[in-house]
Amino acid sequence: MTLQAVIVAVQQFRGETLAADYPVTIRRPCIFSQNHPSALPILQAFYADNFVLPLPDGHRFPMAKYKLLRDRVVSELPGVQVLQAPAATDGELALAHIPAYIESVIHGTLPAPAQREIGFPWSPAMAERARRSVGATVAAARVALGLGARPHGIAANLAGGTHHAYAHKGGGFCVFNDVAVAARLMQAEWARHYRHQRQPLQVTVIDLDVHQGNGTASIFSNDSSVFTLSMHGEKNFPFRKEASDLDIELPDGCADMPYLEALERALDELDHRPKPGLIFFLAGADPFEGDRLGRLALSYDGLEARDRRVFDWAWQRRIPLAFCMAGGYGVKIDETVQVQVNTYRVALSYWSRWQNQLS
Ligand SMILES: [Zn+2]
Fold this sequence. Notes:
Helix content is 41%, strand content 11%.
């Protein structure tokens, strides 16, 4: 990372004047699904072929799920437009990560134990995938928030949710923390757009992946402008957890009803905290009963009810929401993808409500 990139990142975070070459507008995306007239507003979801990283034979990460999800979304949900995810720049990554860590990832110089903690072998493709995964969440957040443009209210990353990444290290298949970078970048862009506002853009992270969002909790541990909620398996990875602003710990085998009751209590609690101007929702598929790593027992219906409750909570308060897929390790990969497709169906119904209001 160059010094200039770091300076630009800090300036951006403070809402100061930006270097002319800094990417602050939505880059013109290329369209994967050509079956929509481009003038029609459509739920935008960001994807890159780079998401599917070639892994050694026998690797336990279900990399194929990203393309399977993209293909099903494109073929089954004509209301969703799949767009090319941009790559996050060094300057953007530096909003949530220390420069030495970014440099080690980009140049492949991480010590072996740190690379093992991430869980993927290093390659240029791994580094590019990590950039794109962050870029997709940034793009989704911009579209949802709509600074200086028509807000969509809801937009998505077809991957992302890399919540185990800390400022200085990765872990658990997470390299960079997409939501942390996107939250800080949106705060900076919001501050620049609304110069008269003294208060920062308040952000809430609703992390419903079955594993705790330890990296996110750590990054925002001293930042009251970002509220972190994590609902996760008490006995599941990561075994040394961080303190989120609100942690809901669930017992092994937790099924639909107790899960949804816990979610209700969590959302009630959010109503007593500062109202956010932007929500990031990690819609992990790994609380599903057929998940290899989840240890919970939610059904398809239970997870759909979960998603509906989160989208509804945001909609009732008219808070823009960007969502990402986070984990999913189904014994049958198609079941993970089905949970995710269901999330998109729910998202579409709430996205339509936003458009009716905005039109
Ligand atoms: Zn997970």
